[in-house]
Amino acid sequence: MGAAKAHRTERAANRDFGMGTDAEAVRPPGWLQRVLIGRNPKRTLVRILILVVVSTVLFKYVLQPIRVEGGSMLPTYKDRSVHLVNRLAYFCHQPRRGDVVAIRLEAGEHVMYMKRIIGLPGETVEFRHGRLYIDGRRMNEPYLVFRCYWDHDPEPVGTNQVYVVGDNRTMPWDDHVKGRGSLDRVVGKVIL
Amino acid sequence: MKSWWVRAILLAALVAIGIWGWGAVFPGPEKIIRKRLNAMAKAASFSSKEGLIAKAWNASMVADYFTENVQVALEGPGMQQTISGRAEVLQAVARARSALSSLSIEFPDIKVTLAPDRASAVVNVTARGKVSGERDPYLLELKMQMIKAKSDWLINQVETVKTLS
Q1: Taking the domain B28-161, which CATH number applies?
Q2: Which residues of chain B, if any, have pLDDT below 70?
Q3: Do strands A82-86 and A186-191 pair parallel, antiparallel, or not at all (unpaired)?
Q4: CB A95 within 8 A of CB A85
Q5: Domain coordinates of chain A in residue numbers?
Q6: Active-site annotation holds for A115
Q7: Contact (CB<8Å) A176/B77
Q8: Which of A123, A131, B40, B99 is the most exposed place for a label (fewest CB within 10 A)?
Q9: Is A69 within 8 Å of B162 when comparing Cβ atoms?
Q10: Total-model pTM
Q11: ipTM reported for the complex, 2 dp
Q12: Could you count the other beta carbons within 10 Å of the beta carbon of residue A21?
């Protein structure tokens, strides 16, 4: 008699706390619930929160996704292709020649230039018959595929600047966006 | 204990809604300038389907965003143009509408720096233009000076900033 009363009391308490009876507790969650929110909703919520925070930090401050618009970097980077910018690439060292970088504009970072560094701080950049010369020495550019016919007098690069240009140099000199950019405008190195 | 958490979350939500509502009802100068520039970009854009009356109306709408003696100096790859005064702005806009079949202009980034007297502002804008038939979009970095005239912010000066010199 006493045992039966105790059992009823436990079942009532379980109902009060929303735990259900033993038969209800062992019932597995439906397939829809398992697909949508998993077996344990609390754990799923925590996982979602962690995923959102990690993704936000990762893709905003470490690996920023960008989409190429235009043919300035052809054939290395095709129009409308998507790539990642490593924002921490120059945390420990300065940009190097040959690096493809993203350069931000003054107003913000929704639109950036994607160019290749050819001239480093303090150097002089020159083009003769489409060939690149740095401080008077001819440079090898294995990434170039299209022919280039540029001729441009030596141009000094400031101590806090880099000289950037696209890989597609088929257009006339004046129609191609290139030149000296401040080092603090370099957002990061384009990878992948 | 649990009810305190709920109350705190509700309070925080109410405060957030209040701040958002205040900003929506009484927007600051930065927000007004951003909204105005985006509206101008929309008015300056046009499609090939636009009729003659709509073209003329929208061209006059664009000119209304400038002061009477505005100075515009644009320079880009293969392009250089200087405009003085609102009347010339209107002419330039009308010329562009007759020369191009369609043009899409947008300002993805707008950075507003208000003067201490809050009656003028320097605005850095990234302008992106897409002309039909051309693969690459035009990208210009602009520096504008805007002044407050009565309740409206008008563009008084526009010049191109060379990100890569």
Answers
A1: 3.10.450.50
A2: 1-2, 77-78
A3: antiparallel
A4: no
A5: 2-60, 68-191
A6: yes
A7: yes
A8: B99
A9: no
A10: 0.76
A11: 0.75
A12: 12
